[in-house]
Amino acid sequence: MKTDKELNNILNECLERLLVKGETIEQCLANYPEHTAEIEPLLRTAVAIGRASAVEPRPEFRSRARYQFQSALREAKPQRRLPFFGGQPRWAIAVVTVLIVLLGAGGTVAAADDSMPDSFLYPVKLATEEVRLKLTASNLGKAELYAELADRRVAEIVYMVNKGESERVEDIGQRLNSSLVALAGLTSAEAGDRVFTAAEPAAPPSPAPGVLEKSDTGVTDGQGPGDEKTKLRTTLERYLVDHPAALNAALKEAPESVKPVLQKIIAEVTADYEEVLQALD
Amino acid sequence: MQDEQNLIHLVKQGDKEAFAQLYENHFDKIYRYVVLRIGNKTEAEDMTQQVFLNALRSVSTFKWKGVPFSSWLFRIAHNLVVDYMRKEKRQTIVCLDESMVSSDCGPQLLAEQKLDTEQLIRATQKLTAAQREVISLRFAGGLSVAEAAKVMGKSEGAVKALQHSAVINLRKALSGSVPNENR
User: Fold this and answer.
1) Which CATH number fits the domain that encloses residue A229?
2) A187 neighbors A143 (Cβ within 8 angstroms)
3) Fewer Cβ neighbours under 10 Å: the N or C end of chain A?
């Protein structure tokens, strides 16, 4: 008597021959006469399933979708990575590096942390963020930091919308998008083998794709990687709701000149968060 | 048709026509997969479109490491379906109109197939989530067992077992209404 595993294989082989190679049920069963009674009804059901699954998109939908996709394709810009330090002025980089590395969180850095894009300290804020990213060893740590940066960018966008500065809003929107794209990259299934790039010498067993692990030594609160990942997910789920809500609230009060830019940002943010959360599943 | 790996290489270099080719190659399969998973025509259209927009946005993160592009694309679709299910907390079944059924069938088969599509969607709701996923990937998406295994994060053996049990359960659910197959 055949085992379940063997029957699984026979059924699968017959399905391949039927559905891919176009053979008939009889041709396939000829190889397994002793299993005809068992396999034949399943194959007949499978063929019916195959036919019933052949649903065609409506022609109008197909045309509309193709047009929209090609429009998006035309507008798509090559993904560019912001260079290290994000093109911040050299003086800001020098100040931040000295303050962070030698003095810890100095007053200037602390003050810059709360600055908005129209402040002269804003370049210090951005440079500080770049340094923090550079100094964060694990990919999970980086992902958490990117989430924090996204939160900052949203607050800045709301602030600049109120000032009616569409160019700055657009610029911050791009930074927000860059943070979320980087976050998606860190959490995506394809990054599954990269999350251990900073792992200890004795690396743990291979993780499931997309599973983030805290691999630096900065974890001292007794939380495991699963806790950290859950925490990140909770944060991102909150942001998925809060950030579009904040931006939509700003949109209601926004000057007309800023609205198109802001609407584009809202659409991107929502899609970006969904993508990040999917990658975390 | 160009080799898919070559197309991906071109896409990575910014070739938009290559991406358009990938879109055409996979559009129908993704749509069928989503329809079978959620059974909602309107949502399936929106979701199919979103799959490709998401792919466009994140294709730069795709790496060809033995995982086919199709598996990656279906993974995006799978995640959107899961999110949809999570948000909706329901599994809607809608009546499918004729425009959703292959138009290259004769009138007799068209009527039969229309009936089958509705029945199939209803019947798949009686499967486990994993069985439904396998049926959708294999029959609607046209993926091989190996590709389906990549999407689901399972072994090929596990996918074959799920496929077997799913077909058995579907046969039970469809008993008495499965059309006679004369191939």
Assistant:
1) 1.20.120
2) yes
3) N
Chain A residues inside the 8 Å CB shell of B31: 55, 57
Same domain, A148 and A256: yes
C-alpha A184/C-alpha A275 separation (Å) is 7
Q: Which of A213, A33, A72, A64 is nearest to B55 (CA)?
A: A72
A238: Cβ contacts below 8 Å, ≥ 6 apart: none
Residue A160 lies in a domain: yes
Contacts B28 to A, Cβ<8 Å: 56-57
Query: Contact B83/A278, CB-based, under 8 Å?
Result: yes
Question: In angstroms, rounded to a whole number, what is the distance separating the alpha carbons of residues A156 and A117?
Answer: 7
Kindly give the interhelix angle for A166-187 and A259-280, rounded to the nearest 10 degrees: 10
One pLDDT digit (tens) per residue for chain B, 183 residues: 458 888 888 888 888 889 999 999 999 999 999 999 998 878 899 999 999 999 988 887 777 666 788 888 999 999 999 888 887 765 444 434 444 444 333 333 333 344 467 888 888 988 999 999 999 999 999 999 998 998 888 999 999 999 999 999 998 888 755 444 444
In this complex, is the C-beta atom of B57 within 8 Å of any C-beta atom belonging to chain A? Answer: yes
DSSP state letter for A24? -
Q: Do B167 and A11 touch (CB under 8 A)?
A: yes
Q: Tell me which residue range forms the domain holding A95.
A: 84-135
* Residue A178 to residue A62: CA distance in whole angstroms: 31
